[in-house]
Structures are given as structure tokens and as C-alpha cells.
Design brief:
Its EC number is 1.1.1.336. The protein is of the alpha/beta class. Helix content is 38%, strand content 12%. Bound molecules: nicotinamide-adenine-dinucleotide (NAD).
Length: 494
């Protein structure tokens, strides 16, 4: 650490005083709750949500300024908090909003701290080259309007090495200032789950990694006020990047372990859920045998890509130092592949069930229930329902899609011709097979007899990808049942 530079930066922070004005770049699942929670903290005076006025996302600016959430899944407290900090609720901020959304990036110059919560996808995970174009544009805008003594924090999930590497270089190039001397730079990864955004930000511990100790300290000043239960965990910027990518990689790995075991149980004619209960019962000091749930596949923006950020990180930061056998694939990438296989397995289950009633995929009418990748959410990014849909259509099936949460107008990557509707009866009517891809609450209390009446045939198929249907009820109701991990039930007689 350069002591003179750090002293200079420390003095700049002291001259500026406490953080009062904050900018949050990127108004998505992460940026919106982060921004309104900053705005709700009495320690801060003003928060700007910066959103580029793009074709796909520009609509969020008007909605947020009107006090309305663009996120349509169940997000407890979010709608109210947006209304409060914009003053739309007629309360304390009425006429003087603490939060406003804008595409005028020049306002970054007014901010004491700027965070970035921009998407960080991979176009093609196999080449390990992320699409950082939106993030780079965001960082450039911050650099362009950066003033001495500002703190810049990347909240997006990024390849280890990005904060101290690419982000630092762009910010320095655009601003002519020096990171760690003229402005602060840190990574504080977001650890939220859609459906619990506000709760997670307030209650989870917050990893805060600056490029040096002064930057870490300043970033702790930014996050401390929004934490109600969570603790601040300081570390280096690169360690914070590895922590975030590793935590999602591990979750994906654990889901893959459950999925592989579910496939094994199906092959052996065993109920995965019995096995899970049995394994999980071995408890005691130092013993953890918890197993996650298997399912129809993993979706979302994060788990589908963060493994690749971690893999890329080690390639960039330590390729020569990595001791790894040439002939063994990465455990983490294998896990991704297992999870990516699950929609194909759903197709195989559907095909085998249809065969049992003398049908093939060609001409079969399939009711696909749940386009979002998560229960009771509108988040359909990288949904496993999409590869199933494409494969079923390619096999000649007619697929109708129901989702009570997803808005087909704003959902990403809806295939041409996929008419996602909220009319459940219309989707079920005449269906040969009902295939459940999301465990939305609307699908948890189905009455098999009512579904069968809508299907209108004597032995419709039910394929349960989220363990929401009781197999015995459906089988005794006349259905041909298939379920992930249900080797004990998948072969019953009609
Ligand atoms: N969704 C989650 O639950 C979650 C959880 C933890 C971490 N993350 C990470 O946080 C980051 C953001 O994820 P998200 O789910 O909020 O993404 P998102 O796609 O919902 O939101 C990103 C927003 O940024 C906007 N944007 C893109 N480029 C911009 C630019 N240059 N200037 C201004 N706005 C711009 C987009 O239009 C969009 O509104 C990702 O790196 C993700 O991996 C997400």
C-alpha cells in the first residue's frame, strides 16, 4: 500500500465529510432495492438511481419516479418503500423526494459515493469471455464525471481481478485521477435473492473489499447504515470478488449434487426425498449432510454464469500457479453441465409418460406451467423452461405456456411464437401433458380431478419438475405421473 497516496485519499474523504449523496448505476433487481434502502437511511440526504434510457429498460425511469416498482414478482416492502422515498405516498418526502431516477449521468459529479449494479452475463460461457459492454459503459460514465474524494463501488458480480484491474484502468483513464489516491475504489458484492431483496440487503452480512484499507473503510461507512442485522466483513477487493463468485458456484454445485442423485434414484427406482431425509438425519458435531432440492433446472442471471467468472478469474490471475490435473474437468463446470441437462431430462420424462398413453411428442399438446425460473417471481432470465420449450417444439409438440407473474412484454428472450399467458384454464384445456417448471403457489393446490376435466382425456400426463404435486393423488386421479427424483413412482401402471 502506498502510504502517501492513502494519506492523501484519507484527507480527501475527511474534507468531503460524511457520505450524503449517493448514485446507484443500473436500476435492476439489485440496484433498485439498494438505492431505495440508501434513500431510506437517515444518514443519507439524496440518492440518484442512474438508468440508461435504453429500448428494453428505459421505461423503468418513469415508473420509479412515479413511485412504482418495475419488478413485478412478490417483493415484500419494496413497492411501499419506493413510494415512500419518492414521496409519492404523500408522506415525509412528499414534494422533496430523497430518491429520483435519471439518465443524466452528469449528476454523478454531485455524488460522494457511486455504486454500480449492472448485469454481467456471458454471451457464450464456453469461451469464458463475459459481455462486459454494459458494465464498461457504466464505469466510463462514472469516470467521466468523477470528482476527487468520491468512492466508487462495484456491486455487480465480476470476474476476480476486475475491480483492481479493468475498473481501475477505465476510471483512471476517463477521470485523469488515481484510484487509492484521488478516489476510493471497492467491491461490495450483492448477496440478494429475488423475492427477498430488501430483507437480504438489510440482514445478510456485507462483504466489503477495497483496493486498500482506506477504501475499505470508506465503503464500510456507506453500507453500515443500511444493515439491520448483518455485519460488515472487510477484505481485499479481489478476495471479495472470489467470495461472491465462489458462494454462487457452491450453490450451483450443491444443486447439481442433488440433481445427479435424483437421476440416480430415478434409475434405481428409489424416492430421492426418502434418501434425502435419511442422509440429512446424520447430524452431530462437525457433520453436515444437508442436501438441496433437485429440480427442472437452474435459471436466473447469477447461478448460470458466476461459475464462469470464477473459472475465468483463476485463468487470468493464476494460470501458471494452478495445480490441476489435465485430464479432469473442473468440478464446477461439470456441475453447470448437470444443471443445464435437467430441462432435457424433463423432456425425457414427458416423452416416456406420453409413450405410456400411446402418444409421441409429435402433435402432443403440452401445458408448460411456470416460465419464471423461481417460485412466485417474474424473473425469467435464463429460465430452464426455455430449452424445454424449444426442444418440445422441435420434437413436434404444441406447447402453451402459463405464468401468473411473468409479463411477456418485458420478459427477456421469449421465443418467437411462445405466447405466455395468465389464463390457466386456456392453457390446461385439451392438454395431453401438464409440465410444471416453477413451483408458483398457483400450482401447489391443484385438484387433479379439476385439471383432468380441463385436459379432457382419460389419462393425461403430469410431469412435476418442482415436487409440488403429490404423486399418489395424481396417479389415483387417473394421471400418468413423472417427477424429478421419483424413481419409486415414475413407472406406475396406467
Ligand atoms: N438478481 C440478483 O438476485 C443478484 C444477486 C446478487 C448479485 N447480482 C449481480 O448484480 C448485477 C446486476 O444484476 P441485476 O439482476 O440487478 O441485473 P438487471 O439486469 O436486473 O439490472 C441491470 C440494470 O442496469 C441497467 N444498465 C445496464 N447498463 C447500464 C449502464 N451502462 N448505465 C446505466 N444502467 C445500465 C440495465 O438496463 C438494467 O436496468 C449482476 O452482476 C448480477 O450478477 C444479482
Amino acid at each position: 500500500m502506498n502510504t502517501n497516496a492513502s494519506t492523501k485519499l484519507q484527507q480527501l474523504f475527511e474534507t468531503r465529510g460524511a457520505i450524503k449523496t449517493i448514485g446507484v448505476i443500473g436500476m435492476g433487481y439489485v440496484g433498485i432495492p439498494a438505492a431505495v434502502l440508501f434513500a431510506d437511511a437517515p444518514e443519507f440526504d439524496q440518492v440518484y438511481g442512474f438508468q440508461r434510457d435504453s429500448k428494453s429498460s428505459g421505461y423503468k425511469i418513469g415508473m420509479l419516479n412515479a413511485g412504482v416498482s418495475p419488478l413485478k414478482g412478490e417483493e415484500p416492502g419494496l413497492e411501499d418503500l419506493i413510494a415512500k422515498v419518492t414521496g409519492i405516498d404523500g408522506g415525509e418526502n412528499s414534494g422533496k423526494p430523497k430518491f429520483t431516477c435519471t439518465s443524466d449521468f452528469a449528476k454523478i459529479a454531485e455524488c460522494d459515493a457511486v455504486t454500480l449494479a449492472i448485469q454481467t452475463p456471458f454471451a457464450n460461457p464456453k469461451d469464458l469471455i463475459p459481455n462486459f459492454t454494459p458494465l464498461i459503459e457504466g464505469i466510463r460514465n462514472v469516470g467521466r464525471y468523477l470528482t476527487p474524494g468520491t468512492l466508487v463501488v462495484l456491486e455487480s458480480t465480476i470476474t476476480p481481478g476486475t475491480t483492481a484491474g479493468m475498473a481501475r484502468e477505465i476510471l483512471e483513464e476517463e477521470s485523469g485521477l488515481v484510484a487509492g489516491e484521488d478516489f476510493g475504489l471497492a467491491h461490495a458484492p450483492e448477496r440478494v435473492m429475488v423475492g427477498r431483496l430488501l430483507k437480504n440487503i438489510r440482514e445478510h452480512d456485507r462483504i466489503v473489499g477495497g483496493i486498500d484499507a482506506v477504501c475499505t473503510g470508506r465503503a464500510c461507512e456507506l453500507y453500515g447504515p443500511v444493515l439491520t442485522k448483518g455485519a460488515l466483513i472487510p477484505m481485499s477487493a479481489t478476495a471479495a470478488e472470489v467470495t461472491k463468485t465462489a458462494e454462487n458456484t457452491f450453490r450451483d454445485l450443491q444443486i447439481a449434487a442433488a440433481n445427479q442423485l435424483a437421476l440416480y434414484c430415478e434409475a434405481m427406482g428409489i424416492n430421492f426425498y426418502d434418501v434425502r431425509t435419511g442422509v440429512d438425519s446424520l447430524k452431530g458435531e462437525g457433520i453436515t449432510r444437508a442436501i438441496l432440492w433437485p429440480g427442472a433446472g437452474v435459471g436466473g442471471h447469477c447461478l448460470t454464469k458466476d461459475t464462469y467468472h470464477l473459472e475465468r478469474g483463476v485463468q487470468q490471475l493464476g494460470p501458471d500457479a494452478l495445480d490441476w490435473p489435465d485430464d479432469i474437468a473442473s468440478l464446477y463446470v461439470s456441475s453447470r453441465q448437470i444443471n443445464d441437462f435437467m430441462p432435457s431430462h424433463m423432456l425425457h420424462l414427458t416423452e416416456s409418460a406420453l409413450q405410456q398413453i400411446g402418444k409421441t411428442m409429435t402433435g402432443a399438446k403440452i401445458a408448460l406451467l411456470g416460465w419464471a425460473f423461481l417460485n412466485d417471481s417474474d424473473d425469467a432470465r435464463n429460465t430452464p423452461a426455455e430449452p424445454f420449450y424449444q426442444a418440445a417444439i422441435a420434437a413436434g409438440a404444441e406447447v402453451r405456456v402459463h405464468d401468473p407473474w411473468v409479463d411477456p412484454e418485458t420478459a427477456p428472450d421469449v421465443p418467437d411464437g411462445a405466447d405466455i399467458t395468465r389464463d390457466l384454464e386456456a392453457v390446461l384445456r385439451g392438454a395431453d401433458a401438464v409440465v410444471i417448471f416453477a413451483g408458483h403457489k398457483e400450482y401447489r393446490n391443484f385438484v387433479p380431478a379439476e385439471v383432468k376435466t380441463l385436459c379432457g382425456c382419460s389419462h393425461p400426463v403430469i410431469v412435476d419438475g418442482r415436487n409440488v404435486a403429490d404423486p399418489d393423488e395424481w396417479i389415483s386421479g387417473g394421471f400418468v405421473y413423472r417427477g424429478i427424483g421419483r424413481g419409486d413412482k415414475n413407472g406406475h401402471a396406467v
